[in-house]
Design a protein that fits this description.
heterodimer, A: alpha/beta, Rossmann fold, 7 strands, B: 81 residues, Non-ribosomal Peptide Synthetase Peptidyl Carrier Protein, Chain A
């Protein structure tokens, strides 16, 4: 699967799943736009690692929760490259609250970054993908289907993202753009360490039926597949990457004891 | 407008508090700023002054004054660089 000569934007690619995805696409030959927001050093490291694979990396700082910043980011891409082949909507945020504690601010913040930003990015990206067989992959999470403690607003935002994936997939077919999503359960990232520390997620990394914890690269490989022509007939789907956890909850629970 | 005044305006707007009631000694608890308010304030201040505020440092802020002092320090470092 070669992505040589393609240009990919991966939002939130300084760390975690975004970084792994950026590096995976780069390893297949794509030039990468590394979008980051708050951790410049991490993003600079990602860019350096991408360049060491022999492709180009362009760093753009933008808070995707702010529509004006999304437009600025795409203006830079449009002026500098004039096109885009791949968009991975990975950047995410969230506020850990139970449903009774979610206020308007927490709702708007989370939905703005996790659901609205992928829409706005897709709208701008689609125009830059004209005639290029574009691919869009949205990064979701199992919180869209399952209830996790204090994950309500994030879970709802991810459910919205998965529904958006289906609409984009159908409505962007005339532009020859493939749109899909990847939903992972707990992936070994800094975000997970935070959730475990806060007691929001149990440290059940041994309980995955597949026998080990999900690594960012496990998600990145599926994203790369969805960005390839091999996945041409997969449209609007959310591929679950969880080592079997979601279909074997009782086995997972037993192993965790 | 001083840096302190500019940050005060940003924080007051996010937390919906009267900026005249804020002093450098005000704690974030005093002005009823929750963790999301803090993140939004950090982000707004980063954008305004084109600096980066490390999360590890931000977690140590007890008072509004701690925040202002840190931003002033970062701005001075930026000027030197």
């Amino acid at each position: 699967m070669s992505l040589k000569g393609k240009l990919a934007l991966v939002t939130g690619s300084g760390r975690g799943i975004g970084r792994a995805t950026a590096l995976k696409l780069a390893s297949q030959g794509a030039d990468i736009v590394v979008n980051f927001f708050r951790r410049r050093e991490a993003a600079e490291q990602t860019a350096k690692d991408i360049e060491s694979l022999g492709v180009k990396a362009e760093l753009i700082r933008a808070n995707v929760g702010d529509p004006a910043k999304i437009n600025e980011m795409f203006d830079v891409i449009e002026n500098r490259f004039g096109h885009l082949d791949i968009l991975v909507n990975n950047a995410a945020s969230g506020v850990g609250r139970t449903v009774m504690d979610i206020d308007v601010k927490a709702w708007d913040w989370t939905m703005g970054i996790n659901a609205r930003a992928p829409l706005l990015c897709a709208q701008r990206a689609a125009k830059l993908m004209k005639g290029r067989h574009g691919k869009i992959v949205n990064i979701s999470s199992l919180g869209s289907l399952f209830v996790l403690p204090t994950y309500a607003v994030v879970g709802v935002s991810k459910a919205a993202l998965e529904a958006l994936t289906r609409y984009l997939a159908i409505e962007l077919t005339p532009q020859d753009i493939c749109v899909n999503a990847v939903a992972a359960s707990a992936v070994e990232t800094e975000a997970l360490k935070f959730y475990i520390k806060e007691g929001l997620i149990k440290d059940n990394r041994q309980a995955t039926p597949a026998g080990r914890m999900i690594a960012p690269d496990d998600v990145a490989r599926v994203v790369a597949f969805l960005c390839s022509e091999e996945a041409f007939m997969i449209r609007g789907q959310t591929i679950i990457v969880d080592g079997g956890t979601s279909i074997a909850p009782f086995i997972a629970a037993k192993e965790a004891q | 407008m001083s840096i302190e005044e500019q940050i005060k305006e940003i924080v007051a707007k996010i937390v919906h508090v009267d900026k005249n009631l804020m002093t450098k000694e005000s704690t974030f608890k005093d002005i009823k700023a929750d963790s999301l308010d803090m993140v939004q304030a950090l982000v707004a201040v980063e954008d305004k002054f084109d600096i980066e505020i490390l999360d590890e440092e931000a977690q140590k802020f007890q008072t509004f004054g701690d925040f202002v002092d840190y931003v002033e320090k970062r701005l001075a470092e930026k000027e030197k660089a």
